[in-house]
Amino acid sequence: MNLRPDWEQVKQRYLDCWALENHDRPLVTVSSKKSKTSYPYKLKTPETIEESWLDFEYIVKSQRNGLENQYFAGEALPIYNPNLGPDIFGAILGCDISFGLQTSWCDHPVTDWSAFTPAFDKNNPWLQKIIQLTQMAVEEARGDFLVGITDIHPGMDCLVSLRGPQELCLDLYDCPEIVEEMPKRLFPVLLDFYNELEAITAKNQEGTTAWLRMWHPGKWFITSCDFNCMCSNADFRRFILPELQMETAHFDANLFHLDGPGALTQLDDLLAQPNINGIQWVPGEGNAPVSQWPQVLRKIQDAGKMLHLNARPAELPALAEILKPEGVILSLGNAPSEGDADDLVKRVTELWKAK
């Protein structure tokens, strides 16, 4: 991988982390802008918001420009993750997408579950778009950087896309038997969708990656359910957990994206799942940073799970007091310079060595 010339060593670090064998320090992902920059492509900025999402030639070339000028320290990887927003799975099942500056939204076309049949339709326009974007990204990458699987939200989160959050909450009372079965009926479509994209990314890279910017040698998946904060433990076990168990049994590896204090209600059930490899804990905007949740972090590690954290450099000493290094990935964002990025990796090494 030309943009990470020490790829073989970095790859081994990821293999060790997945196996909970990184005994010296957590994995660290931190990057910076290179001190000397050069841009392979001169690009004209899209004139509309929609073009900034759908001008795929501009998107993949701008990604090349950005990655060529980024310095990757620790275990940070040069990755482009094709993205049309969080509702792409709903879109390939019938939603339509509209775009904003930073994200996208979808309509909620299902008014009657009895009239809805989930199917993987190769002619779906949004499926064709994300396939085209992924193909163009792989052709641009030429093995120089990794191309990820787009952000997929199956299960109950997909039902939110199709039905709308308020209506889905009412459905839990009005037609719970239908809602209970629907996530499992979506599962074959998830597999078809994932495999379609993975067959493209596998053309010039080993293993898979995704928006969490980690690497695994097989087919791995970031599983999640943001709807879980709306559910009691009983509803989580009835409506969400069965499909989640299907996901985690199928893929080679996974991390669960646990977002916000409201989702902690389900943590014990998640940690009890033998096929969940780890947790990405995100406290959410306006809440205490990750280092101030020691009981949560220790509970996850004591269950033998990996742990992915978006952390601030100032939190590193506190995190070193709380966490063992095995299975931990610390995402530290962007540093001011290449030297600062390397210094953060050294700081992590020193803090965990001193334990």
Question: Care to describe what's here?
Answer:
The chain is of the alpha/beta class. It contains 13 helices and 13 strands. It has helices at 7-18, 49-54, 56-68, 88-91, 125-141, 155-163, 165-174, 176-201, 233-250, 267-271, 294-302, 316-322, 338-353; strands at 27-33, 70-74, 79-80, 97-99, 104-106, 146-147, 208-209, 215-216, 220-224, 253-259, 278-282, 306-310, 328-334. The chain has a 7-stranded mixed sheet with strand order 2-1-13-12-11-10-9. The protein has a two-stranded parallel sheet with strand order 3-6. A two-stranded antiparallel sheet has the order 4-5. Helix 10 (267-271) links the parallel strand 10 (253-259) and strand 11. The longest helix is centred in the middle third of the chain and has 26 residues, at 176-201. The radius of gyration is 20 Å and the shape is globular. The chain starts with 6 loop residues before the first helix and ends with a helix.
What's the mean pLDDT score?
96
Number of strands: 13
Which quaternary structure do these chains form? Answer: single chain
Q: How many helices?
A: 13
Query: C-alpha Rg, in Å?
Result: 20 Å
Fraction in beta strands: 15-25%
Low-confidence stretches: none
